[in-house]
Backbone:
């Protein structure tokens, strides 16, 4: 499902990889008309794994749902001119344009060139480093210190996290920046040149989470604590027969629920009187984490997963099961059609599959169906007509000259 | 530094933990007047680790920079009424109010109660699960499959990531949702009831990244590949004397730069002819990742970190060094005052320290200084006066009755 929150906003996206496409997806699934500028034949990430047997990328089609695609030869001046025209096109009835989202800092698409066409243009460029250096999620992650404390790692044997967390944060942050700039333009008429660097975002987060002040003022780095939660109690436990479970007792309520569910009240009291810890204090629960885990382990180890689940839910413990995506699809009702954020869509070149619309829920507002990713150039003619007002003859000339292309030139479309 | 993008927007926040405070911080650092509703004495996360020796939390002060704090007794009807009045207060000159951000789904602060006061109210509630169940970052993470493939983990021995990535994504997504709803209200006059669940966001991301379609259509879960990057080439390497480095060759340009920097062109060609791989294709680089890593390892192992850095930079390789936060503070110029996103601020109860404003950069727009987190109730009188128009006598009565408090009641303030 998607919502029409940003209805009538037109955004041009020229992007690759995760952050910028995710920002565009977020805007698109919240109602913006998102026009992707695609290279004829596909850009740098069009074939990224995983792929269907016929070659279509499930990564690309996942991140580019709900967008329109115009395929353009970006190496030729006339193609580049088309892109600038699309960004600079004036507002029309019900269409507020003049927004570019990109992670490709190319001189022919510079902010000042676009501003010359449209004084209130908003451009949002996602960068690696703020000083112009190249970086991706992984090369930023290593500099944040997290791999040195993940999974019992040491600085000499770091463990990279697999989720592209900085890319994801950057994508949502960029979507926020665009929405905030559009809101200001609505009030003031001013455009904006926005830049957001992956490493700036990661380093800012170290400040926001207190990690930086801890390093500077307390002269300490976070400890490497395996699967424990930092600062309170939380850890994973094996059940007798099924998947492991993660349980947390961060708040006092969560902690009391966990103690009650596992029936360790007496043992916890004995631990407190033996050690002097006051386990109603979250910081002391963190200090005593290994002793607490030792008390809980037998309870989980003696019970089947189904019973563990039942008792934890009865006591309203905050917990979850470890699952692979295939297991989650089979076993977690929240990941399927009983959750309204999901529906089945038909993606060209992929087939029919479960897909998510927006995670956001708007009470009492109509949901609109999620739309799949296009083939490259699916919307070429339509975009040229309805944004630039080109007549059929001119559109035909651009095709004949190889400046634009339709979906038949998508390399994942098999010749009939 | 912060920017006045959302100047004049007034947001009331009642929150704890990471996601909702981060959303509020994002709005505040982009110019919104963010009023935190704090419990007298502090809420559930006010003492969260890490803490200064005197007890002030560096986590809390990191996430609550740039906000105003009003301390209220939320267990008493008159206190709750004050909160509803603050959210429902009408717009004034230069102040657009009527926005609540929270992760505390409490009946006395329900959307319909607020809408009765102000028809265009926007509320944004961050939840654990969309069905009302409790969840935190860690209990959502385990259900996404990532811990089963992190750091060479297996489903039976999962590895939790330490960065609260879902909280962070949720915080920025919520900030986006508020900005988008405010933009719509600006155009249409309509309010909105927004809900965003941590697990919905995580599961939607599995769809957006192609993981879900891979599980459903290809019947495969991601492999557990240690520190390798999925889908292309990227891994960490030990240098002769210093920190490990992460290098990637995701795009063709990055790959060519890496091969040239490490002078392995001939060895790569030999590997290609021996194995039949075409390593100009990123997916084949992924397949051949171990063989590629074996070619590169000796080059890194034979060189000091400083030389590795110099040569990689000369060739414009995409790379980074593994560092702890303390090492990054000492050695990475991007994490310090030479980066304009950072400045030194003085946080009450903490001292003077390096802190980040917004990661976003707006060209040609004035930066405003970053503001520290308040003590609980620092702004109680000011907020009662300028938002609710209460006279000094009425403010005094509320203090005397214990309904509100000033910063002297903050438990981290030492009696003089």
Residues:
């Amino acid at each position: 499902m998607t919502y029409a929150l940003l209805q009538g906003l037109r955004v041009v996206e020229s992007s690759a990889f995760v952050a910028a496409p995710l920002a565009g997806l977020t805007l698109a699934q919240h109602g913006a008309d998102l026009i992707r500028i695609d290279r004829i034949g596909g850009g740098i990430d069009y074939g990224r794994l995983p792929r269907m047997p016929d070659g279509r990328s499930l990564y690309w089609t996942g991140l580019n749902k709900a967008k329109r695609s115009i395929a353009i030869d970006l190496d030729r001046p006339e193609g580049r001119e088309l892109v600038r025209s699309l960004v600079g096109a004036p507002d029309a009835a019900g269409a507020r344009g003049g927004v570019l989202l990109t992670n490709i800092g190319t001189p022919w698409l510079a902010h000042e060139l676009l501003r010359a066409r449209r004084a209130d243009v908003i451009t949002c460029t996602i960068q690696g480093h703020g000083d112009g250096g190249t970086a991706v999620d992984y090369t930023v992650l290593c500099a944040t210190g997290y791999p040195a404390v993940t999974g019992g790692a040491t600085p000499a044997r770091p463990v990279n996290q697999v989720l592209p967390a900085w890319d994801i944060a950057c994508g949502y942050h960029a979507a926020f920046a665009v929405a905030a700039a559009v809101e200001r333009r609505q009030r003031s008429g001013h455009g904006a040149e926005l830049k957001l660097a992956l490493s700036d975002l990661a380093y800012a987060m170290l400040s926001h989470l207190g990690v930086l002040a801890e390093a500077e003022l307390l002269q300490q780095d976070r400890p490497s604590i395996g699967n424990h939660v930092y600062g309170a109690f939380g850890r994973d436990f094996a059940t007798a027969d099924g998947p492991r479970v993660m349980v947390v007792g961060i708040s006092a309520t969560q902690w009391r629920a966990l103690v009650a569910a596992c029936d360790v009240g007496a043992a916890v009291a004995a631990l407190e009187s033996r050690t002097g810890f006051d386990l109603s204090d979250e910081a002391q629960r963190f200090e005593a984490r290994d002793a607490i885990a030792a008390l809980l382990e037998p309870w989980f180890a003696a019970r089947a997963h189904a019973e563990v689940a039942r008792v934890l839910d009865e006591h309203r413990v905050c917990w979850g099961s470890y699952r692979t995506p295939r297991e989650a699809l089979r076993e977690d009702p929240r990941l399927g059609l009983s959750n309204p954020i999901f529906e089945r869509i038909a993606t060209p070149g992929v087939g029919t599959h479960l897909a998510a619309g927006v995670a956001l829920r708007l009470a009492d507002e109509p949901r609109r169906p999620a739309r799949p990713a296009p083939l490259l150039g699916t919307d070429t003619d339509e975009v040229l007509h309805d944004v630039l007002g080109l007549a059929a003859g001119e559109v035909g000339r651009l095709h004949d000259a190889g400046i634009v292309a339709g979906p038949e030139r998508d390399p994942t479309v098999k010749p009939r």
User: Anything to note?
Assistant: The radius of gyration of chain A is 26 Å.
